[in-house]
From TrEMBL:
Gene3D superfamilies the UniProt entry points to: 3.90.1150.140
Upper classification of the organism: unclassified sequences, metagenomes, ecological metagenomes
Record's protein name: Peptidoglycan beta-N-acetylmuramidase NamZ C-terminal domain-containing protein
Example GO molecular function: peptidoglycan beta-N-acetylmuramidase activity
Peptidoglycan beta-N-acetylmuramidase NamZ C-terminal domain boundaries: 22-172
Length: 172
């Protein structure tokens, strides 16, 4: 929207700018047994599972005070993909400040929170999540109980190098 160009849907599962804003972090839910909202009108903006209590999850997530986002409880039944036709409890991620929102970190907090709340239900699809993340280290750290902030800190040097490198490629 900052370019004044019209939004062109790049994928059937990315119908809005809000979806595109949430996607860089929420895509990692594809590597878990949490529905990433495919089969709904808000893919990647809503997420959940039949075994999740939306009220409790949203309470825990909002207590984290993650930068640039708030959560609202939702119930949804996907028309396809994970949990097709099943009622899922979960959350709707609302990006309220795109400049502060940290998609990757926020989604790690979502995954960690669901892991802690539902240890007997939550599952990674190991090969897929590792492929999405480009490494098994993040999944393994989450499974070991390492704090999300420590996981993020462990990549700070690489991220700083990336931010510097990318400057010469920015178009606007």
């Amino acid at each position: 929207d900052e370019t004044s160009l019209p939004w062109v849907i790049p994928s059937p599962n990315m119908p809005t700018l809000d979806t595109a804003t949430a996607y860089p972090g929420q895509v990692f839910l594809e590597g878990t047994n949490i529905s990433e909202g495919r089969g709904t009108t808000k893919p990647f903006e809503i997420f959940g599972a039949p075994w999740i209590d939306g009220y409790e999850l949203v309470k825990k997530l909002n207590e984290l005070n993650l930068e640039g986002i708030k959560f609202r409880e939702v119930w949804f039944s996907p028309t396809f993909s994970k949990y097709k036709g099943e009622l899922c409890g979960g959350a709707h991620i609302h990006v309220i400040d795109r400049n502060q929102y940290r998609p990757f970190e926020s989604s790690l907090h979502i995954i960690k929170t669901v892991m802690n709340m539902y240890p007997s239900h939550f599952k990674f699809h190991n090969e897929y999540i590792d492929k999405l993340m480009g490494t098994s280290k993040v999944r393994e750290a989450l499974e070991k109980g390492i704090d999300v902030k420590d996981i993020i800190k462990s990549y700070k040097g690489e991220l700083d190098n990336f931010w510097e490198l990318r400057k010469s490629y920015l178009l606007y």
